[in-house]
Amino acid sequence: MTGVRDPGSARRFLARRLVARHTLIFTFLVTAGVAASVAWAASAGRIPGEPWGRGTAADSCVVCHSLERGGPFRVAPNLFGIVGAEKARDRDWYGYTAALRQKGGTWTEADLDQYLADASAFAPGTTKTIRITDPEERKQIIAFLKTLHR
């Protein structure tokens, strides 16, 4: 029987071709979906870029704090407008220690200087661990923070 094909062979061939086509379409759609998701997430600010404030006097602050108006909360509160602001502001979001909440008042340049020099001495019981021992560095940080106002 020449010229007669095995019908099962033809079906298997078509099935493989169909699977290959569907795999190609699926791969394209997944790739396009991932690309769109990444673009959307980046535009929505969900993929963190370089923190604003890198390379400034407050470079060491941006590890934990954001500095821009309306910036995201990181592991510590946003420092935009901190000079003259109420101590332990944003209590609903951040779990300030009782030591800092009880200090009361607003952040003056002198308070910020003492806090940056030795937070534990300024507010015994606080969890802030960073100490900036160089008075000139503290002065530069505070001068930079003063420029961040509403």
Explain what you see:
Helix content is 45%, strand content 0%. It has two domains: 1-47; 61-146, Cytochrome c-like domain (Cytochrome Bc1 Complex, Chain D, domain 2), CATH 1.10.760. The mean pLDDT is 79. By secondary structure, the protein is an all-alpha fold. It has helices at 7-43, 98-103, 109-117, 119-122, 135-146. The termini are far apart.
Strand content: under 5%
Order of helices and strands: HHHHH
* Count of the domains: 2
Helix content: 40-55%
CATH superfamily of the largest domain: Cytochrome c-like domain
Quaternary assembly: single chain
Q: Compute the average pLDDT.
A: 79
CATH fold-level assignment of the largest domain: Cytochrome Bc1 Complex, Chain D, domain 2
Biggest sheet features: none
Shape: rod-shaped
Structural class: mainly alpha
Q: Total strand count, please?
A: 0
Low-confidence stretches: none
The level-1 CATH class of the largest domain: Mainly Alpha
From the N-terminal CA to the C-terminal CA, the straight-line distance is 90 Å
Q: How many alpha or pi helices?
A: 5
Radius of gyration: 29 Å
List the main descriptive attributes of the protein structure presented here.
45% helix; mainly alpha; Cytochrome Bc1 Complex, Chain D, domain 2; 2 domains
Structural topology:
Elements: H1 7-43, H2 98-103, H3 109-117, H4 119-122, H5 135-146
Helix pairs in contact: 3-5
